[in-house]
Amino acid sequence: MVKQERAVRTRNALIAAAAEDFSRMGYSPSSLLSISRHAGVTSGALHFHFPTKAALASAVMAAAIQRLHGIAERCEKRRTEGAALQLLIDAGHELVQQLRDDVVLRAGFDLEGDPGCPRGAGEVRGHWYQWVRATLEGAREAGELRQGASVENVANAVFVYTVGIQMLGRRDAEWVSRRTLTRFWCLVLPRIAAGEDGLDVAGSG
């Protein structure tokens, strides 16, 4: 049991160290030697858990996807019946906050857009898009969307905006903020929502 717990701690430390390096430097410049040093483990321990850098990138992606699922689950628990749009708003705000605070989630988004990262390492952004689209489908079925509002177009807009501010936030943290996303919803909601009464554009979490 002690060995298993130590192995889990080592694996998590390696994922966190890799996420830090991948997010800060990019996939190609990051080295397994540097990652093992940052994690405080030997190269042998790193290779025991992750034989290649691509395997480590896949693990970071998988951990980032778990973070995304956690955001959705927390926001779902706070959701009231027939409030799919508010759920989307709340999840977007929590995502933006976590992109600032959680290096693993941030690295997952960064890696997917990194041309040096092997294809198939993971699809963090894809998971976010699918969740956004499914939530908007729920909003449409509940009558929360204006007649004629396209689920696909709205999902694309939300996806592009959230991914875009994450990328811009790498140079200017002000982009990755509640205020920035609130402005987006102030612009978009009047055009897509059947009724805005009760919707909190700043997030209700």
Which structural category fits the helices and strands? mainly alpha
Low-confidence stretches: none
Number of strands: 0
N- to C-terminal distance:
38 Å
Biggest sheet: strands, sense, closure?
none
Oligomer: single chain
Bin the helical content: over 70%
Strand content: under 5%
Radius of gyration based on Cα positions? 19 Å
What is the helix tally?
9
Shape label: elongated
User: What are the secondary-structure elements, in order, as H or E?
Assistant: HHHHHHHHH
Task: Compute the average pLDDT.
Answer: 91
Write the topology of this structure:
Layout: H1 2-25, H2 32-39, H3 43-49, H4 53-78, H5 84-101, H6 103-112, H7 124-141, H8 151-168, H9 178-192
Helix pairs in contact: 1-2, 1-4, 1-6, 4-5, 4-6, 4-7, 5-7, 5-9, 7-8, 8-9
Q: What would you say this structure looks like, in words?
A:
- By secondary structure, this protein is mostly helical.
- Helix content is 70%, strand content 0%.
- Helix 1 (2-25) packs across helix 2, helix 4 packs across helix 6 (103-112) and helix 5 packs antiparallel against helix 7 (124-141).
- The radius of gyration is 19 Å and the shape is elongated.
- The mean pLDDT is 91.
